[in-house]
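User: Batch of two.

Assistant: Item 1 of 2:
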Amino acid sequence: MLGCIMTYRISLAMLFFAGALSAQDEAEELPPPKPLYQFKKDHDPNGTGKFYMDREIAQVMSYLGASWLERTEREKEEHASKLLPPLKIKPGDAVADIGAGSGFYTMKLADAVGPKGKVYAVDIQPEMLDIIKKRVKAANVTNVELVHNTVTELKLPANSIDLMFLVDVYHEFSHPFEMTEEMVKALKPGGRVVFVEFRLEDEKVPILEVHRMSEKQVKREMAGHMLKHTKTLNHLPWQHVIIFEKIVESKPRINTDDHG
C-alpha cells in the first residue's frame, strides 16, 4: 500500500513538473507584447510617422492656420450650423471643446449651454487660447474657461463634463490612448464624447487622408475604454459625427441572505 502511495505521489510530481516546463516553453514561444505606439520611417509626409492601432497620427495644425477655421466658405462646405442641434445640448450643461482652436465652436457652445452652463475651451497651443480669450472678451461671454492642456493631460475636473466635443482634432492627438483615458475620467457617468471627423470612407472629401478617420477606426480605438458607441450621424456633407457614452459601472450586489 505504501508503495502505491509513493508511486502516486511521484506521478503527480512528474505531471506538475512536466506542466511547469510546458507552460515555460509556451511563455518563451509567445512574441513580446506589441508597444502601444509604433514608429515608421516611411510614412505619409503629412503625418508624424507615429502609429496607433495601424493609424498614422497626423501633424497638428498650427495656430498660423487659424484663419482657415474661420473661412467664409466653412458653412457652405461643412454645414456647421447643422452640427449642434442634433446633439441636444441643454442649458446648464458643462461642455469641453477639445482642441478648441480659434473658438469657432466654443462661442456657439457657450450660447447653447447658457449662462448657467460652462464651456471649457481646451487647446495645447497658447496662441489659440489667446485668440479665444479676445473673442470671449469682445462678446462679453462669461461662461467660457480657457484650459491649456498637455499631450497627455486634459487638466479638467474629474466627473464634471456632460459632453466632450472634438471637431477634426482627435486624429492629431500624439497620445490618443492617454487622452481618451483623460476624457473618460473627466466625463460624468453617462456623459458623451462626440467625434466629428472628416470621413475616410469618402474619397470625394477634399481633405488630406491622414486628417480623415473612418467610423470603424474610431470605434476600434474607443473599444478599450469605458465607452459605448450609441450612434453615428451622417447629416453633414464631409464629416461624420460619432457619439459614445461613458459606461456607468454597475454596483456590486449585496447578498442580504448572508448574515454571517
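Item 2 of 2:
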Amino acid sequence: MARPREFDMDTAVDGAMQIFWRLGYAATNLPDLLRAMGLTRGSFYKAFGDKHSAYLAALDRYDRTCISAAVALLTDQSKGSGTQRLLRLFEGTEQEDKAARRGCLVCNAMVEHGPGDAKVTARTAAMSARLEGAIFDALKDVPGLANDGEHSKRRKAAIITRLYLGAQAMSKAGAAEADWRGLLGELLGCEI
C-alpha cells in the first residue's frame, strides 16, 4: 500500500510558482526549489519526477490563479465599463509588481524558453489566448467602439494583449509607471 502524501500539493506548487517567477527556470536550483516547495528530495521526485515537471505545474498554477483572475476582471461587467476594466488590469498589475519586479510568469516563460520547449510554448500560448479573449470581451463594452466590427475589436484585442505583455516585461526591467489612462484612451479613441 502506498504511503499518503505528507504535504499539500497546492502549497508546494505555489512555492514552485513563486520561485520560478522570481528567479526564472534556469536560475532556480534544486535546493532552492525544494525549500520554496517545502519538500524533501524524495517527496519532490515522487510527486513531480523532475524540475521541468514542477515548472509545468507552476505554469498551470499561474494559469489557474493569476490568468483566471485577470480573465474574471476583464469579463465581469459589474466591475465597470470595458475601458475601466482594462485600466484596472494595467494599473493593478503595475502596482502589484512595483516592489517585486518579477513581471509576468507567462512573459518570463516566453522569453526564457522561446520556441525551444514545446510544452512551455503550448501553455504560454494558451494563457495568452485566454487573456486576449477576455480583452476582446472587455472591448465589447467600450462605448466608443460600438460601431467597430468584430474584426476591428479582435485586432485591438491583439494589440492590447501585446501591449500588456510588453508592459509586464518592462515592469520587470524597472520601467517607470506608464500613463495607462492616457495610453489606453488614445489607443481606443475615447476618454477613460
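The mean pLDDT is 91.
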